[in-house]
Amino acid sequence: MASSASTQAGSKRWTYFHSALQLAIQRSAHKWTYEDFAECFSLWCDEQPENAATIFNLVSGRLESSITENCEELFKKYNVKENLDNLHAVVTAARARKQAGYDGKDAWKEDLQPRAAVRARTIPLLEKERDRLRAELSQLTEENLDLQSQMQHNVQAKEDADADAARLLDILDRAFAKWDQLPLDDMQSWTLQTAESSGSKA
């Protein structure tokens, strides 16, 4: 039990409870003495006393471990340590108020329904959380609108750039088409004639 997580530091109430339970487990596991064991297995204990004592100790240890493991499972299942710590905190606070001379009236009344008391406590908290979520949602909505506007602007800019590129390509296509229609052979001949004529005059 000492190696279990349930032995971690906690309130005094938990410490006392855990120590008392551990002592009870030890006493329960060893309540069956070796003399009782020897009465049940007298012949074997007489013939092999050393082995019998060893087996008796193993059985007692295993019994203690088994009870401890079962208790640990119950502790985890029902949050025993946490609940005892909370109880200790409540009792300690109540004692402190009493010692301080507290004479205020409790919020609890005999005719007050538990659901009404819970609603009175939880509804303000829920409303506060609702307002916080609304404010966060409003902020996110505004940010989304800004991002959407920026995205639309970028899309429009891209479309404009694509349109300009398409117009330039059309101009180039028309220029190449007109270039192909030119009489290149005649132009080359005229260019040579002009060059020769200019050379002869020089």
SSE map:
Elements: H1 12-29, H2 34-40, H3 42-47, H4 49-78, H5 80-99, H6 114-181, H7 184-201
Describe it.
This protein has 202 residues and is an all-alpha fold. It contains 7 helices and no strands. It has helices at residues 12-29, 34-40, 42-47, 49-78, 80-99, 114-181, 184-201. Helix 1 runs antiparallel to helix 4. 3% of the residues are buried.
Mean pLDDT: 83
Q: Into which percentage range does the β-strand content fall?
A: under 5%
Question: What spatial form do the alpha-carbon principal axes imply?
Answer: elongated
- Tell me how many strands there are: 0
Relative helix content: over 70%
Strand and helix order: HHHHHHH
Q: How large is the count of helical segments? A: 7
Largest sheet: none
Uncertain runs:
none
Oligomer: single chain
Structural class: mainly alpha
Instruction: Please compute the radius of gyration using only Cα atoms.
Output: 47 Å
Q: Report the end-to-end length measured between terminal Cα atoms.
A: 120 Å
Explain briefly what this protein structure is.
It contains seven helices and no strands.
